[in-house]
Design a protein that fits this description.
The chain is mostly beta strands. It is built from no helices and 24 strands. A hairpin with a 2-residue loop joins strand 4 and strand 5.
Length: 379
Amino acid sequence: MGRSVGMFLSWLIVASAIDAASAEPPAFELAFIGEATLRTGSRFAGTEVGGISGIDFVPGDGTYVALSDDGSRVDPARFYRLAIDLDDGRLDAGDVRVVGHAMLHGPAQQAWPRNSVDPEGVRQVDGERLYWVSEGNARAGIGPGVFESGVDGRFVREFTLPPYYRPGGGRGIRHNLAFESLALSHDRQTLFVALENALLQDGPAADVTHPTRVRVLQLDIDSGEALAEYVYQVEPVPLDALPPMARETNGLVELLAVDERHFIAVERSFARGVGVGVRLYLAGLDGADDVLGEPALEVVPNVKTMTKVLLHDLGRLGVLLDNIEAATFGPRLADGRRTLILVADNNFREFQVTQILAFALLDQPVAVVPAVAGDPFGR
């Protein structure tokens, strides 16, 4: 498809503030070290590999858990284990293999019924617990969910969410714009789950003229209780669709914890006739209002949103971007640099692929602006 141009260009990501209230963030040196793909229609253990919407590196065995968003439509809801070979310091064709898979069980320890869940984000903890989110199905009246499973896929529990997420009566989640992101705090005590676009009662969805305000809910892992809730503002769609009024969207599709107060936020846009855009931001909680318990943001004045700083527009890579939805920090390279992996959901469509992009990052911020406190790579 003529995807890659300049595979080993090194990018200096100098953070540029877009929120005057935000603290100065770190600037990271990031090198694009390659791309690999899995062909649509690939099969493993009798299932079609695709729809990868969440990924997490597992240091214990060096594999990655990759969550499919197939809500038991093509095959039973499931996740895969991937091996990604970065031993030579780059990612090339053939460096990604599927090495395992497991079915996600519902509360009755059976396969989830068709269209009852829409798995999106995933994080694994301590080689024993898997946390994942479902986007739900607003058209069918099914709300979003946050779940704990064993690493074998067996159901453990579902977290209780505030009632204002439930769809119905012109309120709650928008269809296919609900939970996409899941971040795990560095102390492994809390989860941060975020919407892709605003709840209906919180304001408009993103378009070329409007941003959208999404909720980021913090959950205590041990108790399952909601601890706090913050607002992150997604940018308007950067380019008009062709023809005008055709489908266009922009949303928050992934959060990755940088330290206890900061995240890499992945915004993915799509405009028919134009294509996919992906931007990485450094988002922070400092100064953001806690809106937990507020059922409708449109009636809450002057909500202070999370700080937000543009890190990089992946449109500059010279690579044809697919439907990027998943992110994780990976292992260290031989030279000591940490890696960042991004993955695209192929939507089980023949004209798309499961795209994997790899980047290498310096351990320490470049001395351009002061760094945030804490280790930015979660050792």
